[in-house]
Write a structure and sequence with these properties.
three-stranded antiparallel β-sheet, 519 residues, mainly alpha
Length: 519
């Protein structure tokens, strides 16, 4: 039976230190194999996993997250890739604020359209049959400016027909603008009507930021130059405001993926300075708590390789196992043998106390690494060993986990089915549905009995909802556990991962208490 080490270690290890050292040696071998698997995919997937864990950190304040990203962006070596990614996010989520800056940059707007018929047509060819009210985007700006300033620009309008249209005629029939040759007209304005490009009419059409969608990359490059070449206070203010307003999770998901590993390490070092060195016990079990412990207590000196490995073992146990399943049989066999050897010593009395002695001699980050690998070994072993409800319940009893059967089986629950289907029925409606199901079951039973009387060879199986629920319980099991104060119903699919994470957090708390008592 697998030993989970959930109780406090005994004071005396009774001379089993050699066994503890042997286990650590086996964990080192396992570490080497797992790291080879991670490296074989270019580390990209493991880096994405780590970025997802970083995004779970919830103790960073808006001002702190702003300072961290601005520090990266303001480093001696310009972070153009990070800046570009951030600007794309700003364009997507705050287009109006960006549009207000664009509306002030007439020379940039001219550059955007000059020599580019596609952009001209996309922005200015939006005249409507319904008249002035229906004109959109640049078309509205062009028509308004042309009427107000007809004395200086009307001759620059190019018409598709044999003759042009007078201002008076177009004023009475605004849909005549549909006959305008948009490309030639805008090109004329670029050459001969500079007043248009700094006009209030054009600025107003740009302020909603819709123009960003025509060629986002153009504006990204332009704003990056405003940041690093012109040091535009207006752009940096926009960035600072956005970094304070947006959630840390969203920023991490979108920005960390473009950082090189040295910049990711610098980022982790910066946020590590913001954590309290002591963590509240209620934080144990949060996906990022182990990372916060490392970053707050190890001064950013932990190799990125260790963080990638530890995160994969703790937070991506299932994904790591799937990665192993894609390997050749020889490699899978090595891992399986190592896991078996590591678990073979679990039942030795006082092994946990001996391991604790070894941990107290190590650096905190190293301890977390071995505990994380041990937790993953447990995850792997539980998948192999616990195949039925009886084996799970024996595991619970052996390790002092209080449990009780759960009667929650969403797969076969008519209420759950109605909820997933978006039913708006009230409780009374649900009761009527249940009654209808019972009636249907009785009808099926009568039909089955009749068919059996007619022809014994045609055996029909009646699926009774209550009986099916009991059968599911006997085959797969579903339990409420003391590991989470009976707050969730756990089945055999999710239990290995849940228990591995629970054990890891329990071990970390135990090691922390031991260190504090020694200190």
């Amino acid at each position: 039976m697998v030993q989970l080490f959930l109780s406090e270690p005994l004071c005396n290890d009774n001379g089993v230190s050699d066994v503890a050292k042997q286990r650590l040696s086996l964990l080192k071998k396992l570490e080497s194999i797992i790291w080879t698997l991670i490296a074989s995919s270019g580390r990209s997937e493991a880096r994405l996993w780590l970025c997802n864990t970083i995004s779970c950190i919830s103790s960073i304040t808006p001002n702190q997250q702003c300072n961290v990203f601005v520090n990266l962006l303001s480093s001696k070596q310009p972070k153009r890739a990070l800046a570009a990614q951030l600007l794309k996010l700003i364009f997507e989520k705050r287009p109006q604020k960006t549009g207000k800056i664009i509306a002030k940059k007439s020379y940039m707007v001219e550059k955007f359209f000059k020599g580019n018929p596609r952009r001209i047509l996309l922005w200015f060819d939006n005249f409507s049959h319904s008249g002035k009210i229906g004109h959109r985007k640049g078309s509205r700006a062009l028509s308004q400016f042309a009427f107000v300033n007809r004395d200086i620009c009307w001759e620059e309008l190019e018409w598709k027909g044999k003759h042009g249209q007078s201002p008076a005629m177009v004023a009475t029939k605004p849909h005549y603008f549909l006959d305008l040759d948009i490309q030639r007209t805008v090109e004329n304005f670029l050459e001969n009507v500079p007043e248009f490009w700094s006009s209030d009419e054009l600025a107003e059409s740009l302020e909603d930021g819709e123009i960003l969608h025509i060629d986002t990359n153009f504006f990204v490059d332009y704003f990056v130059d405003l940041m690093y070449k012109e040091d535009s206070a207006e752009v940096w203010q926009l960035i600072n405001e956005f970094l304070k307003e947006e959630s840390f999770s969203v920023l991490c998901h979108h920005l960390l993926i473009v950082l090189e590993e040295r910049d990711l390490c610098a980022f982790l070092g910066l946020i590590g300075e913001m954590f309290s060195p002591r963590m509240d016990s209620k934080e144990f079990g949060h996906p990022s708590y182990w990372l916060e412990i490392i970053l707050s207590r190890c001064n950013g000196c932990v190799p990125i390789e260790d963080l990638l490995l530890l995160n994969a073992a703790i937070n991506q146990g299932r994904a790591l196992i799937r990665l192993i399943q894609d390997e050749e049989e020889e490699q899978k066999g090595k891992i399986k043998d190592l896991v078996f050897q590591i678990c073979a010593t679990s039942t030795i009395i006082n092994l946990w106390a001996s391991l604790m002695k070894e941990f107290l001699r190590m650096k905190k980050a190293e301890v977390l690494k071995w505990l994380g690998l041990q937790a993953w070994v447990l995850h792997y072993r539980l998948l192999e060993e616990c195949k039925n409800p009886e084996s799970w319940e024996a595991l619970f009893m052996e390790n002092g986990i209080v449990f009780r059967k759960s009667d929650s089986y969403d797969l076969l629950s008519p209420e759950a089915f109605l909820e997933e289907s978006g039913s708006d029925l009230e409780c009374g409606g649900s009761i009527r549905v249940r009654r209808k199901k019972k009636a249907t079951t009785r009808q099926k039973k009568r039909k089955r009995d009749y068919c059996l009387d007619v022809d014994n060879d045609n055996e029909l199986v009646d699926f009774d909802l209550t009986g099916g629920r009991q059968d599911l319980q006997s085959r797969t099991g579903n339990w409420l556990l003391s590991t989470d104060d009976f707050s969730s119903s756990w089945n055999t699919v999710d239990l290995p991962e849940h228990l591995a994470k629970h054990c890891f957090s329990t071990w970390v708390k135990c090691v922390s208490c031991q260190r504090n008592s020694v200190a």
